């Protein structure tokens, strides 16, 4: 049974979503503040975390919690689930390592579909290594079975969403991928701002290892591509 941590300070919402997710067969632990959630995560990591941004008296407590959880694990799927619908918060959340950013006006079936998609992608990392699942181009190496990435033999810690977006670009070097194609390949349903934020974060992670990294190109009005030539 998959374990979901739901961090939401509104008791009614927390109880309603806990009940709905439990009916879907998930084991749900609810927390109403950052400190309680951090204590629980330190003891045992959830299989997926759903986090509100504002927690009790902490206006950005969810952002801090996301960073804490990302320091514990680079692969646990994290969804921000919040009433704050603006580009600044969306970009901030994704830069901190969240896999998805949803607003509370989303339908329950849509939320469940996003959760299921993240779980399907997360399960791939537990498959055994398979040489046929390896992609090597330039100084990049990707293992699509275990969702491992390295650049110049240095590991690159990518979230689940980041990995599949990068994989979509790299499997056909030089080919332009539209935002819609990136969403389809990584099994996401998000807006253009979210795609842009993920691409920026991927670039930042590579640039932190190699200041001359420039292989992800933006073609304005078209999409993105992985530049194959050194």
Automatic annotation (TrEMBL):
Q: Which residues form the Response regulatory domain?
A: 3-119
Is Phosphoprotein set as a keyword in this record? yes
InterPro entries with a match to the protein in the record: CheY-like_superfamily, OmpR/PhoB-type_DNA-bd, Response_regulator, Sig_transdc_resp-reg_C-effctor, Sig_transdc_resp-reg_receiver, WalR-like, WH-like_DNA-bd_sf
- On this chain, the residues bearing 4-aspartylphosphate are 52
Record has Transcription regulation as a keyword: yes
Identification of the protein by name: Proteobacterial dedicated sortase system response regulator
| OmpR/PhoB-type domain span | 132-228
Superkingdom of this protein's organism: Bacteria
What PROSITE patterns does this protein's entry cite? OMPR_PHOB, RESPONSE_REGULATORY
Stored CDD domains: trans_reg_C
Look up and give the organism this protein is from: Alteromonas arenosi
Q: Tell me the keywords, alphabetical order.
A: DNA-binding, Phosphoprotein, Transcription, Transcription regulation, Two-component regulatory system
- Gene name per UniProt: pdsR
Name the DNA-binding segment ranges: 132-228
